[in-house]
UniProtKB/TrEMBL annotation:
Record's keyword terms, sorted: ATP-binding, Ligase, Nucleotide-binding
Species this protein is from: Profundicola chukchiensis
Reaction(s) the record says it catalyses: L-lysyl-[lipoyl-carrier protein] + (R)-lipoate + ATP = N(6)-[(R)-lipoyl]-L-lysyl-[lipoyl-carrier protein] + AMP + diphosphate + H(+)
Keyword Ribosomal protein: no
Keyword check for Ubl conjugation: no
Gene3D superfamilies: Bira Bifunctional Protein, Domain 2 (3.30.930.10), CO dehydrogenase flavoprotein, C-terminal domain (3.30.390.50)
Protein name in UniProt: lipoate--protein ligase
InterPro entries for this protein: aa-tRNA-synth_II/BPL/LPL (IPR045864), BPL_LPL_catalytic (IPR004143), Lipoate_protein_ligase_C (IPR019491), LipoylTrfase_LipoateP_Ligase (IPR004562)
Coiled coil: none
A single MF term (Gene Ontology): lipoyltransferase activity
NCBIfam families per the UniProt record, alphabetical: lipoyltrans
Pathway: Protein modification; protein lipoylation via exogenous pathway; protein N(6)-(lipoyl)lysine from lipoate: step 2/2; Protein modification; protein lipoylation via exogenous pathway; protein N(6)-(lipoyl)lysine from lipoate: step 1/2
Annotated GO CC locations: cytoplasm
Length: 328
């Protein structure tokens, strides 16, 4: 077994390194650990916009990254440790998460913390979740990874994942919102994400006598960065890859009410757009709808493009800032 401790806090890099390892180490058992700067990691089959508080995420520079495993959306920061097992897929029961959550549970139990696997993929203490786990099987490998909340900013976690469920209709995987807790309340004083990581590595080393520490080589890092550039840092993957959805939003601007009904197809393109309102100007609104059709449902893109057209011809006295919330 190779134990790899990522030296990066960049969520793009760490999530990309999981795909790199899966593809490039087909026969090797791997235990990877990483800690990300503030980020939300959404499941492969989720509608990203439906899972995140977009304004908050942008204001707080929280990265949003889609991972290759299914499941829900979780928040990461420097107080959250991620662990990831990569093993050749033999005859394991894919639905059983316990094999790879066991080291964490056992270690915590040895430390007197009453951690347990509850349901299929959550680790709980005192009825509160501190670890979410997800997995996939591809290229002959199983990858199972999980979070460990040690000392995360719980208010930021809650705010970043706070959404209005009424805006989106889709068949995407929904997150299962739970009560969460940090392990810091149950661990010896002075425990940090770093010190906990060291304990976990020692625990794994003790259990796997052939395990050895590996660091990514320069060549490997180059490959990982290539994956970041091509996939994990792109809007197309992190947002656009979401399944088809219908989006509905009504807002009030000083001039009156506006409502948007938008159909977005996989890839992020707006396929149908209907805008309603009670105060429109002379130019037919259909012309504005047609302008939007075929564009990405991407707020940054819309912000840039809407500032280039004369909105007053459709809406009378409105500004881009007033109209923009209609799309988010
Ligand atoms: N960091 C973290 N750890 C545990 N639970 C969390 C976390 N962030 C949010 N949550 C809670 O879990 C639910 C979502 O639960 P849900 O069960 O829907 O999703 C998961 O657990 C997915 C785990 C993915 C783990 C990967 C490992 C490495 S990269 S990400 C969310 O709404 C919050 O209530």
């Amino acid at each position: 077994m190779l134990i790899i401790e990522s030296t990066s806090h960049d969520a793009y890099v760490n999530i990309a390194s999981e795909e790199f390892l899966m593809k490039n180490y087909p026969d090797q058992d791997i235990f990877l650990l990483y800690v990300n700067a503030p980020s939300i990691i959404v499941g492969k089959f989720q509608n990203t916009l439906a899972e995140i508080n977009l304004d908050y995420v942008k204001e707080n520079n929280i990265k949003v990254v889609r991972r290759m495993s299914g499941g829900g959306a979780v928040y990461h920061d420097l107080g959250n440790l991620n662990f990831s097992f990569h093993v050749p897929h033999k005859d394991q029961d894919f639905m059983d998460f316990s094999q790879f959550t066991k080291p964490v549970v056992d270690m915590l139990n040895e430390m007197g913390v009453n951690a347990e696997l509850v349901g299929r993929n959550d680790l709980l203490v005192d009825g509160k979740k501190f670890s979410g786990n997800a997995k996939l099987s591809r290229h002959g490998k199983i990858v199972q990874h999980g979070t460990i909340l040690i000392d995360s900013e719980m208010e930021i976690l809650a705010s970043a994942l706070k959404v209005n469920p009424l805006k989106f209709v889709d068949k995407a995987t929904k997150s299962t919102r739970s009560r969460v807790t940090n392990l810091i309340h149950y661990l010896p004083e002075g425990t940090t994400t770093e010190s906990f990581k060291k304990l976990l590595i020692d625990f794994i080393l003790k259990e796997n006598e052939h395990a050895k520490i590996h660091s990514f080589t320069e060549d490997e890092m180059n490959e990982i960065h290539k994956l970041v550039e091509e996939k994990y840092s792109t809007w197309d993957w992190n947002f656009g890859f979401s399944p088809n959805y219908n989006f509905q939003r009504a807002i009030k601007v000083p001039a009156g009410f506006i409502e948007a009904h938008i159909e977005v197809e996989r890839g992020g393109n707006m396929k149908k757009v209907k805008i309603f309102g009670d105060f429109f100007a002379s130019q037919p609104i259909e012309e504005f709808e047609d302008y939007l059709i075929g564009q990405n449902h991407d707020i940054d893109f819309l912000e840039e493009h809407l500032s280039k057209i004369d909105l007053t011809q459709y809406f009378g006295k409105v500004t881009v800032e007033e109209i923009l919330p209609l799309f988010k």
